[in-house]
DNA sequence: TTGAAAGCGGTACCAT
DNA sequence: ATGGTACCGCTTTCAA
C-alpha cells in the first residue's frame, strides 16, 4: 500500500501537504492540490484508517447494537424479527451515504458480568463514532451507553440524554389507526395480543389502542388483552388461551405480522374463518405480506424512514455534540383482506 | 481511556511488559503478569485497536461483501433473501467466537468505475483480515478479491485461488433429493422454476435434478424448465407462463421457499390445488415455513453450518496463508404437505 | 501556503 | 524475563 510519504515524494511536496490535501479542511493551493491528487491516483493511495484513527481518536464507524446479550444477528433469524432487516438495510444505505462503515462488534466472552463497562471499553477501543441500538438493549448496556457520552440512537427503545435519543414509528398513532379501523367496521369486542408495556412499542401501542377505544366510547375489557412475547409461538398460544376464555371477541390486534399469521392459524385451526368470523390486524407490513393469503390488514412501518432518521440523528449528535429530540416516524394502516365487519350474530 | 503506559506506571513495570502481557505469545513471569492484569483491571484498560492495527498491519475484522453494487443489506429486504439472514447470524456467532468483528464497509460513492481496485484499496485501508462474500459478487469485485491476496470465502458463489475458497450447501444433492422424492411419489412430468446456470447454485441444482431424473430413466423436458430470477414475482410469472404453455406437469420445483409460495399462489389462482393437483417443492427451509399453510416440502439448508464453515475456512486461510478446498454442507429434504402423488388422471 | 517535527498507543527487536 | 527504543502512517501545531 502506498503511504502519504510515497505520494509526497512523487508529487514533489511534503508529506504534511498530502495530508492537508486529503483532510480537506486545510488550505492548499489549487496547483499543489492537483499535483497531489494526480500522484495519489497514480499510486492508488488511500489514507490508512488505523493511522487516522490513532491520531484523531475517532473513526468513521457506527457500531450496531441489538437486544439481549446475544449477537446482533442471532435475533434476525427469528421470524418475528424479519422486520429489522428492513431497518438494517436503511441504516446501511444511509450510513454509506455519510461515509460511515457499520461495525458489528464481537460480543464479549462472558456477557454476564460487568456487561456495561466492558461493552463501552470495547467501543472505545474501536473508537466508534456512535452507536445505533435496535430494540430493547439489556439494561446494563443501555445505562452504560447513556452515561458514556458516546453518541447513541435507540430504535424502538426508550433512552435519551445529552448524547442519546431514540427513533421509532409513531406506535401510538399506528395502533390507534388499527383499532379505529376495526371500530369503524363495527367491532366492539376487540382483543389484543400484546407485549409487556415495559417496552416502548408495547407501551405506546397500548396507549394508542385505548385512545381509539375511548374516542368511540368503548370500554376496554382487560380480559381481551393477552400477553405475548413477539414470537409466533407465543401468539399462537395466546390466541388459544383467548379462545379458551369463553369471552366474546370479533377481532384481534397483533403486535407484528408474523404474530398475526400465527393468530390466524390458531383461529382457523379452531374452525374459525378470517375475516368472516374474526378480523385480524398485524403490525409492520413486511415485504412478504404480499405473499401471504389472506392479504393481511396491517400497520405499515416505514423502515426506510426509520433508518434514515436514525442515522441523521446520530450524525447530528456526533457533529453537534448534543442529541436531538426523540423522533416518531408516521405509520399508516394498510387495509387488505383480513378485516371485515363482525359477523351479524 | 487508559493506555498501556498508564498501566505500566501503576504496575511498576515497563510499557513493553504491559504489551507483552496482553499479546499473550511472549514470555512474562507469573508474578509480573498478575501485577499487570490487576493494574489493567483497575484502570479499565483495553488495548487501542487503531494502534495495534497500525503496527501489525492487520485487524481483527472480517468484512462482509454481498451481491451487486448495492449495499449488503439492501438485498436483505427482498423477501427472497430472508435465507441469508440465517447465514449472517451464524457468521456473527462464529466470528465473535474467534474474536473478530464484522464490518460492513460503506460502498464507494461511484460504484461504477474502477470498482475492483477501489474496493480492494478500501479493504486495505481498513486492514481487514479477510472477506466473506454472500451470493454472487459483481465480476470486477470478485476478480479483484481473487487477485488481491486478501483471504476470502465466497458463500453460494464460485471462486477459488491461493487465498480464496467457497462454501455452499450441497446443491447437487439437495436438488437430487427433491426430484427423487417426486419421482418416488410417482411424478414424471416435473417442472423447474430455475435461475440461470451461470450462478453456482443454479448450475449445481440443475445438475442434481438431471441426475435424479437420469437415475430413474426419465428424460427432462426442456419446456418444463422456466427461467426465473429468485424473486417471488418472477416465480409467479414463470408459473403463469408454464401454465400457458399447455404442457402437462404434475410437480414444480422452485429455487427458494419464497418462490415456492409464489408458485403455489399462481397455481391456486388458476384453480389448481396443492398438492392434490400439483406438488410443489421449495428450497431453504426458512424459519417462517412453520408459519405457512400448506406446510411446504422443501430442501433444508443448514445455515448454522454454512456460517460456521465459512468462518472456519476464512480463519484457516488467514492463519495458514492458503485456502482450503471448497466446502459443501449437506442439505436434506424436509417433507411436509405440499407434495403428494400425482392425480390419478 | 508549505515544510519540519512532535506525537497518537501500541509491537517487536535489541540488549541487559 | 524485562527494559529501552525504533518505528507503523497520519494529523497538527509551529515556523519559515
Description:
The structure is a homodimer of 345-residue chains. With 345 residues, chain A is of the alpha/beta class. The first copy, chain A, is built from twelve helices and twelve strands. Helix content of chain A is 44%, strand content 15%. In chain A, strands 2-1-3-4-5-11 form a six-stranded parallel β-sheet, with helices on one face. Chain A has a six-stranded mixed β-sheet with strand order 7-6-8-9-10-12, sandwiched between helices. In chain A, α1 (4-11) packs across α2, α1 packs across α3 (30-43) and α8 (171-185) packs parallel to α9. The longest helix of chain A is centred in the last third of the chain and has 18 residues, at 303-320. The first copy, chain A, is elongated, with a radius of gyration of 25 Å. The mean pLDDT of chain A is 92. The interface between A and B is large, with 62 and 63 residues. β2 (101-104) of chain A pairs antiparallel with β2 (101-104) of chain B. The structure holds a DNA duplex (16 and 16 nucleotides).
